[in-house]
Design brief:
Radius of gyration: 20 Å
Number of strands: 2
Helix content: 25-40%
Strand order of the largest sheet: 1-2
Shape: flat
Number of helices: 6
Strand content: under 5%
Length: 144
Amino acid sequence: MSTSVLRDGSRFYRLTGEPFIPVEFADAAFRYGHSQIKGDYQLRPGGPRFPVFPDLAGFRPLTPEHVIDWSLLFDVPGHPRAQRAKPIDGQLPASLIRLPESITGVIEVSAYRSLASRDLQRGMGTGYHPAKRSPCCRRPNADA
């Protein structure tokens, strides 16, 4: 596909002005990716599984038990098949529903610890309301 775009130019995206990612696409990609995050990951062969938060949050020195064998996360010839992303199912792992304070900062409303709530807030903040724009999600009288 890249050879075709480089040779023939783009068929659908016509750049006018500065490049940008439409908010509808950015929000959809943002939510799509969150749906595939697993609750925990194995970093070393035979090692324990670690929850995303707080163990894999980063922003601190790397301990020996957190050194990653990348063949567990990406397919590498000669190694067993890597861990797969969680299938898209509309469910977030508990670690993304109860984000730690190191991610959220101090908050007064406990619902704001949830990534789902934050995704919805982000959509409201950008003015993008999928139920009002997408025919597949529109309820009768949604625009009334």
